[in-house]
Hints:
single chain, alpha/beta, Ubiquitin-like (UB roll), Elongation Factor Tu (Ef-tu), domain 3, Rossmann fold, about 30% strand, disordered C terminus
Amino acid sequence: MPRIALNFENGITRFIDAGENESIADAAYRQSVNVPLDCTNGVCGTCKAFRQSGQFDPGSPSKDVLSDAEASEGYILCCQTKARSDMVIDILASSDACKVKPKRTICEVVNLEPLSDHRLRLSVKSLEGELPMFLPGQYVNITVPDEGISRPYSFTSAPGSDVATFLIRNLPNGRMSVYLKARAKRGERLVLDGPFGNFYLRVSTRPVLFIAAGTGVGPFLSMLEYLAMTGNRDQPVRLLYGTRDPADLVELERVEGLRALLPNLSYVTTCSNPASQHQLSGRVTDHMSAEALNHGDADVYLCGPPEMVESARQHAAKCGSPPANIYFEKFAPAAATLYQP
């Protein structure tokens, strides 16, 4: 049965299953997701949405509401379209308008591992069935029930894993950091709300460049795990990963392991601390040459502190041939979340 990710305008994603002869709209309503709908005959256009990926039967939409040009761009009508594979669809409305709330999952801590003085790896598993489904690159809000602490963290594990992992920056006076170091023993309960975010891996026929600073490498680990898991091993992927100090270049053993499964994966690391003896020095933007950007024939993903993301976007635009697509996520300590449980 195809699984469909419905992405809403305010960043919330809901997954539904659809039967072979069931329209996306019917499948959504069956699972209490009220996508915009005024008719079921493909003549009003209220349920128009954008297909990011997946195979489908378009049905018989009226060309008065869905022109051939729109269909070729990727637009569909949910009341007519039937999924023929897993799909990702952008719903042109907010989740509130469709009466959708983020999924809430009660989890327990199964491991907390310091990777460096400034990096922690948190592992959790669900206490009530499956972990939330998500698109590789998305995040959840992690809440400590009795502490009033809620922070957004990207998955570093692949969708469908039994254990979810997260890479967390260890801030000396950060409330979540203090909790994790002082109390988060095995069996401690946490709440996951989500998934959220428009930063996720798209289907691409071009080379892909991942540019990460600090814990911004986290969502790229999930994307790489997903590519390896789904057998998409021919996709050319290059990871440019920077931190201030070499000790914080964590999770490289995972990247090395994935190279055996992804023969077209390559990576370079750089450190911005002038005192470091790392092979490459400087910020990640110092190594964003036109050649690294494949002279524009690339999809670029940026993740890290806001100043790094903005600098990288501006740098890419000045490289002569700007990338075909740029997707980005800005990481900031104690950032505001889209949804407060």
